[in-house]
Amino acid sequence: MSSTMYLGLEGVLFARHSAVRISRSRPERPSALPLPLLHRLPRITDEYPDLTIVINSWLVPDYGYRGVLNLLPASIAGKVVGATMQGNRSHHRLPTLPRVDILRADIKRRNPPHLVIVDSCSSAIPYEYLPQAVLVNDTSEVAASQNAETILDILSGATGSHSTR
């Protein structure tokens, strides 16, 4: 059975950066400084070929959906089926809700049979989905390995099977 990963980017796959704005309308280009979990995601997507990814990040309204996809390795970008927020097209309004409410609404709209949420901000994770969430609050190599294992454990519980690792 397929699973959906709701994936935050800042502090999860890429280092957080300050939102320095060059002009009033557009922030500086995001830092693409990868964090260790970025290099472990292809293993997860290989192990779960039916896994789809939904981006849950303010980078989407700031830089556009395609701009964010271009930051990701092809193996991960190919699994992305959408984002919780609209891109940066001029006719779209910027979201005014907190990310947690945007995520909750997207989960209700998509109604995935199984999900895992990966984020670095605890306030962006709906409390009712805490058992299916991985909070990335340490970006060390060891923590990245542990987080990847936790993601795999959540996915294996959702699918009822787990490949050998």
Keywords:
165 residues; alpha/beta; Rossmann fold; 5-stranded parallel beta sheet; 6 helices
How are the SSEs placed, and which strands pair?
Blueprint: E1 4-7, H1 41-47, E2 52-55, H2 59-63, H3 65-71, H4 74-77, E3 80-83, H5 99-110, E4 115-119, E5 133-135, H6 141-159
Parallel strand pairs: 1-2, 1-4, 2-3, 4-5
Provide a short characterization of the protein structure:
The chain is built from six helices and five strands, in the order βαβαααβαββα. The protein has 165 residues and is an alpha/beta fold. It starts with a strand and ends in a 6-residue tail after the last helix.
Span from first to last CA? 19 Å
Provide the spatial order of strands within the biggest beta sheet. Answer: 3-2-1-4-5
What name is given to the CATH topology? Answer: Rossmann fold
Major sheet summary line: 5 strands, parallel
The parts where pLDDT drops under 50 for at least 5 residues are: 19-24
- The rounded Rg comes to 15 Å
Overall pLDDT metric: 85
What's the order of the H and E elements?
EHEHHHEHEEH
**Domain count:** 1
What is the total tally of β strands? 5
Percent range of helical residues: 25-40%
How much strand?
Answer: 5-15%
Instruction: Give the quaternary arrangement of the chains.
Output: single chain
Global geometry: globular
* Structural category: alpha/beta
Provide the CATH top-level class. Answer: Alpha Beta
Corresponding CATH architecture = 3-Layer(aba) Sandwich
